[in-house]
Fold this protein.
Amino acid sequence: MARARAHTRLFHGELRIFFTHMGLQYTDAQRREYLHMLDNVGQHWLKVFDNDTEWYLTVYWDLFTKIWKSERPVRRTDALKFLTSVKSPATAGKYIDEALQQGFLRETSNPQDARSKLLELSPDMRARLDAFFDEVVSEVRHTYAAIDRKGHRPD
């Protein structure tokens, strides 16, 4: 135990030296702009689900954005792994089942492998996420400009 504490102190000391040596690049005002952007992204995410906070969970963020990013149906077993904060496949399956019940996902048979199922976003969910990403990309662009106006640029 004492050895673990000593290692922890050493690690934190090294981390402090790293950050001190590295130097901070942005002002508090710039960092607040970033946090403001994250708040706005969260609000846009809630709009995807008509402000239903049941869906304001990282597991759904991981699931829906990774399926969206894949650009094609994914095997259900692969989708289970998309839920990075969920260690149990059975629990991950419950989140997927809930998304299926709500009509956010569609499940079909895999023509390449009859033993597996494929998941894809429903057309409505795809359209909602497309609109979400458009709003968020605009938010990022706006935030970049705001950060630039509030201080030096370390580039």
